[in-house]
Design a protein that fits this description.
The structure holds two protein chains of two kinds.
Chain A (H helix, E strand, L loop, with lengths): L2 H15 L4 H7 L4 H14 L8 H23 L2 H4 L3 H26 L9 H15 L3 H25 L3 H23 L3 H28 L2 H27 L16 H17 L33 H17 L10
Helix pairs in contact in A: 1-3, 8-9, 8-10, 9-10, 9-11, 10-11, 10-12, 11-12
Chain B lengths: L1 H13 L3 H20 L3 H22 L3 H17 L9 H25 L18 H19 L3 H11 L5 H8 L3 H27 L1
Helix pairs in contact in B: 2-3, 3-4, 3-5, 4-5, 5-8, 6-9, 7-9, 8-9
Classes of the chains: A mainly alpha, B mainly alpha.
């Protein structure tokens, strides 16, 4: 329908509303008369739907409306507790229902999610469970233990992710989580009294070493983007160790600060010594991590069997295939060689 | 002194430019709506008087029975009171749009209940016995109403709204567009399609009746 016809229709509608006859409306728009006639007939039909409210009903309805309004105002003014008796009981209903569901099904889910990787839907459950545990760890000692436990868990997950070749995104996320939890653990650890620091120290130093090894392996074997991240995180780990060392050296001396007999050098110092050693070895022309890049199996703690290496010391077929693919990927994505003028 | 005050009133209100007067009226209506959110009685009385006839006409055009239309109109305002806290409208058009939305929900609810528990209607239409001199004429008129209502009910919800707002509530295009939250062009399109569809349906029904 074009604009002119709509305008003509509107005009006719106004004329009919004023009481003019249909013929007069059509005569005013001769060019549209043929189209207007059926449309106006339809409009006249529609007038059958017009109904005005009965005056008595309107008055009674208004009175009832005001009565409702007065009740609503009274309810609004009433104290909250009076408006909803046993409100506290209702408030408890939802947590109680949630607890019931959790008890009946949740624990199984949490247990099942313990080994989940970030690419699994259960990983969210695992994170939620960890958040609850973090909320419950209130003292600095409990918080340190909590972050150490999470850092350890991320490390184990990372090893598993390396073993099953879970993909760079998964590895990257787990590595980030591991280093972050270690940093948080170091922060909490630094606030502890010396006796408690000494108590937790045996757990911190090996963790730092294992993380260092995992990061070095990643830097050597993962695709460039993840490898670059791993190198950055190695620097973060070193910074964490230096913070630990600073906290150790600033700790007050006394009986509490004295480490237990036969214990150790402090974790920060241990790690830095270890990292320096690894660096020296790597820099030496005869061996080390850099020399064995792309060929050596990932360094792993003696207690944890490396899933990529067979008991005989040889790489598993799956690991050999994986490394072959990584090599191919690296070759494909390597930057083009620089062209010299004489070449 | 009184003369001076009257002259000042004329200057400020009557001689005010149309756009400014409209803006002042809108601001005033917005203030009424704000007070209505807090269940202010005077504000609700004003809103009720403003909207009641329009809501009744809207509902009565959709339901066949007058008593149903009256009940539903009351239910619409009762529902509006209950939801006063969530009233977000800032002008007349938005307020009416909100009430029509409640009305649509109430009508659908009523129809659903009637479908589940059908009852025989004693007075099937809005019969205006006084205006119809003979029972035959009343019956013919009721039949015509039923046909038109059925034809309107066969339209899409938006087309129904356009038709009711323009030809039952007598809104112009701009008013209908504001209440529906659409552009005037979109309302024109809807109106055109709705009228064409109505015409086809009514012609078909007429043909069936005559044939």
């Amino acid at each position: 329908m074009d604009e002119r016809l709509i305008a003509a229709l509107e005009d006719c509608r106004a004329r009919l509303a004023r009481g003019e006859p249909l013929a007069l409306c059509l005569a005013a728009h001769p060019e549209h008369a043929a189209e207007l006639r059926p449309l106006l007939a339809t409009l006249l039909h529609l007038r059958a739907l017009r109904h005005e409210p009965d005056a008595a009903f309107a008055a009674a309805s208004r009175a009832r409306f005001h009565s409702r309004l007065a009740k609503a105002q009274a309810a609004q003014r009433a104290p909250r507790a009076a408006r909803r008796p046993l409100r506290w009981l209702r408030r408890l209903a939802l947590p109680a229902a949630a607890a019931a569901v959790l008890i009946s099904s949740g624990f199984g889910l949490v247990t099942a999610s313990a080994d989940a990787l970030p690419n699994s839907p259960l990983y969210k459950v695992q994170q939620a469970h960890e958040q609850v545990a973090g909320y419950l760890a209130r003292t600095p000692e409990a918080q340190t233990a909590y972050h150490l436990r999470l850092a350890n868990q991320r490390l184990q997950q990372l090893k598993y992710a390396h073993a099953v070749d879970a993909g760079p995104a998964v590895v990257d996320e787990l590595t980030a989580g591991m280093v972050q939890q270690t940093s948080l653990a170091a922060q909490s650890w630094a606030t502890l009294p010396p006796a408690q620091q000494a108590k937790l120290a045996p757990k911190v130093a090996p963790l730092l070493k294992q993380e260092h090894a995992a990061l070095q392996w990643e830097a050597a074997h993962e695709p460039p983007r993840v490898a670059e991240h791993a190198a950055q995180r190695e620097a973060q780990l070193r910074a964490t160790a230096e913070r630990l060392l600073a906290a150790e050296s600033s700790a007050p001396t006394g009986e509490a600060a004295t480490p237990p007999a036969g214990a150790h050098a402090t974790p920060g110092a241990q790690y830095l010594q270890f990292a320096e050693g690894a660096q020296h070895t790597a820099a030496s022309p005869t061996g080390g991590a850099a020399a064995t890049k792309r060929t050596a199996a990932p360094p792993a703690p003696a207690a944890t069997p490396n899933p990529a290496v067979q008991p005989s010391g040889r790489l598993t077929p799956a690991e050999r295939l994986r490394r072959l693919l990584v090599e191919r990927w690296l070759r494909q994505h390597a930057p083009p060689p620089v062209q010299t003028p004489h070449s | 002194m009184r003369l001076y005050a009257e002259r000042a009133h004329v200057e400020t209100v009557v001689l005010m430019p149309t756009a400014a007067r409209r803006a002042a009226a809108e601001a005033e209506f917005g203030a009424v709506l704000a007070r209505a959110r807090a269940l202010d009685a005077a504000a609700w009385d004003r809103l009720y008087q403003f909207a009641f006839p329009q809501v009744y006409r809207y509902v009565a055009a959709k339901v066949a029975d007058r008593h149903d239309a009256e009940d539903l109109t009351e239910e619409v305002f009762a529902g509006a009171l209950q939801s006063a806290g969530s009233l977000r409208a800032a002008d007349e058009a938005a307020f009416l749009g909100w009430l029509f939305q409640i009305a649509r929900y109430k009508i659908a609810d009523r129809l659903r209940r009637q479908y589940r528990k059908p009852t025989e209607a004693l007075a099937p239409t809005h019969e205006v016995a006084d205006a119809d001199p003979t029972p035959e004429e009343a019956a013919l008129r009721a039949d015509a109403q039923a046909s038109v209502r059925a034809a309107v009910a066969a339209l899409t919800p938006e087309q129904q709204d356009v038709i009711l707002m323009k030809y039952v509530l007598d809104y112009d295009n701009a008013q209908a567009a504001r209440v529906m939250g659409k552009s005037p062009g979109a309302v024109n399109q809807l109106q055109h399609r709705a009228l064409a569809q109505l015409r086809r349906t009514l012609l078909k029904k007429g043909g069936e009746r005559d044939g």
